[in-house]
Automatic annotation (TrEMBL):
Keywords: Signal
Signal peptide: 1-22
Alphabetical list of InterPro entries matching this protein: NAD(P)-bd_dom, NAD(P)-bd_dom_sf
Location of the NAD(P)-binding domain: 53-249
Keyword Signal: yes
PANTHER family: FLAVIN REDUCTASE-RELATED, OS06G0360300 PROTEIN
Entries under Pfam families matching the protein: NAD_binding_10 (PF13460)
Organism taxonomic ancestry: Eukaryota, Sar, Alveolata, Dinophyceae, Suessiales
Superkingdom field: Eukaryota
Protein name: NAD(P)-binding domain-containing protein
Length: 322
């Protein structure tokens, strides 16, 4: 069995070198060019990942996940320009703080200068701001600033059910949330359009109902594509996934859109979607590997409709490799 063993060895070496090199080059970006001696980059040389909406519940956890992940320095962007970690183990070297309002394009240019990735975690707040301005136009402002500043990646926190305004959850959220799902979907679509032919990539994370529970951990999570399921998920898990999508050296989430929820308790968005998805990924402890198993958006095609008809080629392929 010498041959397979040496192949495995080779593969491990390649993976290791690929991974280590991707720890940033001297310009502080996620460059793949490999310096001769590879060491884990000192905190000061790490690429910077900015989080907009960093005072939000998910945004704040995303800043902490990036800071603690060790692959990048976090830049917490808030409207006030103030941010403090809740987690006392995070030190001043692991993050910086800046000001950004997604409705003010000029604030974004300065806030995104020199960053390698942006995580969009801003959202309207009921009674104060409108989804149209924050979740849609605000996201588009960020996407434009990302392209203008040559930022490599944009990770967007959107929502499950955005393409299902006719599902019970869709009806509910659009009604109580002033069309929030429709605005988020429009924003997503414009990001994809803007990024077409650019050198940047996007990752759109669509969580189910958010909770403040402790993180369930990657192995408990499921990612799906095609928007056929919903469930609940702790914000801490959403934040952890965003941190990986933004800083994973392989950029495994590039140009992918997916829903996420805890495997336990998830349910189909419409009763006739049950069991019918070929895109579910779960039971994996390595988030980057989970992202890698998702399909680029251009390959996600068997999207069922509002009615339980026309599902002929929407076959049941539940068993993705674990
Ligand atoms: N709630 C759910 O069950 C659910 C389900 C699926 C998806 N989602 C989505 O998940 C995301 C995160 O939700 P969350 O509940 O964690 O968020 P959140 O706590 O409501 O935080 C949203 C943050 O957005 C910021 N913000 C508002 N307007 C802004 C602007 N113009 N510029 C910059 N920042 C702005 C606010 O920052 P300030 O601190 O500066 O005011 C606020 O801290 C949202 O997009 C939400 O729609 C939620
Ligand atoms: C670092 O990476 C960037 C982006 O890939 C690249 O343009 C640049 O030339 C690299 N710098 C060095 C010193 O390798
Ligand atoms: C993502 O899409 C952009 C725009 O089409 C493209 O330039 C880029 O190479 C893609 N990235 C990956 C990793 O597929």
């Amino acid at each position: 069995m010498a041959a397979p063993k040496s192949q495995a060895c080779f593969l491990l070496t390649v993976l290791f070198v690929g991974f280590s090199c991707a720890f940033v080059n001297s310009s502080g970006r996620f460059g793949r060019s490999c310096p001769r001696t590879v060491t884990r980059a000192a905190a000061a040389d790490r690429p910077v990942v900015a989080v907009v909406g960093a005072n939000g519940r998910t945004g704040s956890l995303a800043v902490e996940a990036i800071a603690k992940g060790g692959l990048a320095k976090a830049r917490a962007l808030t409207r006030s320009g103030n941010w403090q970690p809740e987690d006392a183990s995070i030190n001043q070297e692991q993050f910086e703080v800046g000001q950004a309002d997604v409705t003010d394009a000029s604030s974004l240019a300065a806030a995104f200068a020199g960053v390698a990735a942006v995580v969009f975690a801003a959202a309207y707040s009921r009674g104060k701001t409108k989804p149209q301005d924050v979740d849609n136009a605000g996201l588009v402002n960020c996407a434009k600033a990302v392209l203008e500043q040559g930022v490599e990646r944009l990770v967007v926190v959107s929502s499950a059910s955005v393409t299902r305004p006719y599902a019970p959850v869709g009806i509910l959220l659009n009604t109580i949330g002033s069309g929030v799902l429709s605005e988020k979907l429009e924003g997503e679509d414009k990001v994809k359009e803007l990024f077409e032919g650019s050198e940047s990539s996007y990752t759109i994370v669509r969580p189910g109902g958010l909770t403040m529970e402790p993180p369930a951990g990657f192995v408990e999570l499921q990612f799906n594509q095609g928007d056929t399921y919903v469930g609940s998920v702790p914000r801490a898990d959403v934040a952890a996934v965003c941190a990986v999508a933004a800083s994973d050296p392989l950029n495994s989430g590039a140009n992918k859109t997916f829903e996420m929820f805890k495997g336990r308790g998830r349910s189909p968005l419409l009763p006739w979607y049950r069991g019918k998805t070929r895109y579910m990924v779960g039971g994996v402890s390595d988030c980057s590997a989970m992202l890698a198993r998702l399909r680029p958006d251009k390959e996600v095609y068997d999207i069922p409709g509002a009615l339980p008809i026309g599902l002929a080629d929407f076959e049941m392929v539940w068993a993705r490799p674990k």
